[in-house]
Amino acid sequence: MRLTFPRRQLRSRTKLLSGVVAISSLAALTVPSSSAFASTVKAAHSAKVPLIVYAAEGYDAAVTKGFQEKTGIPTELVDHSTGTLLAKISAEANNPQWGVFWSDGSESYAALDRQGDLVRGFEPTAGKLTALGKSLVPKDKSYIPTGTTIAGAIVYNSKVVKHPPTTWKQLLSPEWKGAVGMNNPAISGPTYPVVASVMEQQGGIKQGESYFKKLAANGLHIYATNKVTLGALLANKLKLAIVQNSAGIGFAFTTPGLKVEYLKYSALLPGVIGIDKHQSKTEIAEAKEFANFVYSKAGQKLMLAGDPHGDSLFFPIIQGTKQHSAVPKLSSIATDYPNPYYWGPKEASLNQWFTTNIVA
Predict the structure, then answer these.
(1) Prediction pTM value
(2) Who has the most CB within 10 Å: 45, 144, 177, 294?
(3) CATH 3.40.190.10 assigned to 15-148+271-324
């Protein structure tokens, strides 16, 4: 989804400098006063620039619109899947276009931080984090958690499945042969944390690869995204769909009998904001203002309302924000949170392995 806001035509870091030079030349002809010239240059530096937001959240349009209306900062939303946005960010490495990146999963942000692409040392002050929220903040404060969901929940039709599995090991049993489906992590960014979590629970990458090969041999089906995987479940092509829990809960609103089960252990999937450190000081300041808006009461309200049958069904991490009644208590779920700084840099290679060995 793309909101129609003003867009800059050039992202060169010399743009502001050349603008000041032009103002200086004009001032030499028309403004004899040094104080007037100083005011003109100050205005050039303080002028608002378009903030480019790359996002893969169902409520991002509502939040971005609310931010622009509140602050007057011209804002452009580029909305795609996480995988598409990561590919776009990679392709633009020598000339980054984004100012803010907002999606699910800490691993990608840890990898960007390792590359030196994120602003560090910043935390929003418009809202206070819960204990869970604080635990999701990296030591160098290079990215900003905004809420969390569960990456690998099991969704099933209770009219068909009476006793769903409760562990990852049970998915390998003959009972579930040809009956399980999941997303391709190379396309669905929120699925990579599932892969990382399962591999960590199995004891490491080699053990995890062995597990997924066994799962594939047991008839695992691979689809592109939550919507497609859940569609296969509704069409009775599957008995179990491994998807983001917010998507499963959302589908259950319109499909009586659809239920969500949480395996021991299920991976936490934080929503995360990163700020591109390569942009101008003005845009970085605007990006920080955007993060503060997200943490504010107004921003939290828009997050909860923007996608009521999808991403709005998250576990809040800002004190005072109440989750939707359809969302279970997080304390009732056995969760796992793999170290994003270990698994993040491995995302590209493991996604390639998954595509070659499990999808193909």
Answers:
(1) 0.85
(2) 144
(3) yes
